Amino acid sequence: MASNARSEQRDISLEGRQKHLLIVEDSRLVGKILKHLASSMLPDYTVHYATTYKEGCELFEQHQHNIFAAIIDLNLPDAPNGEMAGYLLSNELPIIVLTGNYSDESRERLLLLGVVDYVTKESQYSYEHAIGLVRRLEKNQSIKIVVAEDSQAQQMFITSLLEQHLYQVITANNGAEALAIIEQDPSINLLITDYNMPQMDGFELTKALRRKFNKSELIIIGLSGVEQKTLSARFIKNGANDFLCKPFIQEEFHCRVTHNIEAQEQLNRIREWAYHDALTNLYNRRYLFDKGLELHKNARKNGEALSIAVIDIDHFKQINDTYGHDVGDKVLIAISSLLTSSLGDYPIIRMGGEEFCIVMPNKCNQDAYDIIDQFRDNLAGKTIVADPRITITISAGVASALQQSLDDQINAADKLLYQAKEDGRNRTVKET
Ligand SMILES: Nc1nc2c(ncn2[C@@H]2O[C@H](COP(=O)(O)OP(=O)(O)OP(=O)(O)O)[C@@H](O)[C@H]2O)c(=O)[nH]1
């Protein structure tokens, strides 16, 4: 097992840097298109623009500690043979090269040099692709990829391709090693695995991992040789997301890796939306009955404490009736942000209307009561919305008896909340 030294070095060196992009392009028109696209697609970046090799070098020297990547024209008036690319690559800067005309030789030369990608100046899409790659590189720095491959030459080749795109790479010499690495680090996003390996082959590894991680949690790309065509289908049937036949060309490799990572990101984004309440951005009921259920099951299985608190704003209808629904919404947003800043260690769910639920693993009834009642006490009398000035109080119920289902425990907390309302509001009621 060997984590990649160059990636680690780059990660550290980029930490705290501002986002600066260097563009070196002598055509005013192309430069204008790139600057325009950068301002809309990378609004958080400062763009330095040069039209010659000399200017490009000067700008790089001035801002090199902040420059993250460069998009450069291969042939500049004062550097017709790709000298700009050579200079920036010797300074370990990721570069995307623009070229006026494609040829197999120049493609080969550029990829050998170690550029991130080359883009032919053909259409608006080419320029969008170049700018989009900068954002991709930025995200790649936090993506961890395990390469399981017993051939040292193949392992080094795949690692170098991934490094060029700034991924964090961890290598394994066989399936058993890869399995141990991934089991220890659930933040690993992707595994690229060969089939033929000592100790544990690619299929066994894929099968073992699929018992623990589904396809959106861990992407698996299998590698198979041309002489073993059926391996690819078998990889998929054993749970791999995708496969690649060796030998592959670099573009094909990057396309497959990027495509799978972007699909995973898209899925995670959709899942995030599906789990969040649109007004307050707190979790919603769907989250409660997926993740909350898991927490509840685990607590029961391990004999650990888990408390459920249900909180409700007192006389919220009066706020709506007096000031209107918009002000009511402001109050809901304000209390959600207070809940997050005070109780953000626990999942906070908007159950609907002005009712919130907090799942508190490892908290017994008294501990959970103390935390929730402290929050209630701090809130009472505090101005929650400044204009018009609004103060609120809340009532809460805290249930911790785990013999019930999650649903039953929420109902029990709801009953205690009802009692708090009955007893005069602005109070917390726990189990007796
Ligand atoms: N502004 C706003 N109001 C909402 C929203 N969802 C529900 N409500 C309102 O919340 C109010 C809830 O009122 P009630 O259930 O009568 O409760 P309450 O006035 O808080 O009284 P108690 O809970 O008994 O103290 C109703 O007026 C709903 O229309 C929302 O998303 N935004």
From TrEMBL:
Class of this enzyme: transferase
GO MF term set: diguanylate cyclase activity
InterPro entries according to UniProt: CheY-like_superfamily (IPR011006), Diguanylate_Cyclase (IPR050469), GGDEF_dom (IPR000160), Nucleotide_cyclase (IPR029787), Rev_trsase/Diguanyl_cyclase (IPR043128), Sig_transdc_resp-reg_receiver (IPR001789)
Limits of the GGDEF domain: 304-432
Residue numbers bearing the 4-aspartylphosphate modification: 73, 194
CC cofactor: Mg(2+)
Record's GO cellular component terms: plasma membrane
Record flagged with keyword RNA-binding: no
GO biological process entries: cell adhesion involved in single-species biofilm formation; negative regulation of bacterial-type flagellum-dependent cell motility; phosphorelay signal transduction system
Record carries keyword Phosphoprotein: yes
Catalytic reactions of this protein: 2 GTP = 3',3'-c-di-GMP + 2 diphosphate
Record's protein name: diguanylate cyclase
Organism of this sequence: Oceanicoccus sagamiensis
Organism placement in taxonomy: Bacteria, Pseudomonadati, Pseudomonadota, Gammaproteobacteria, Cellvibrionales
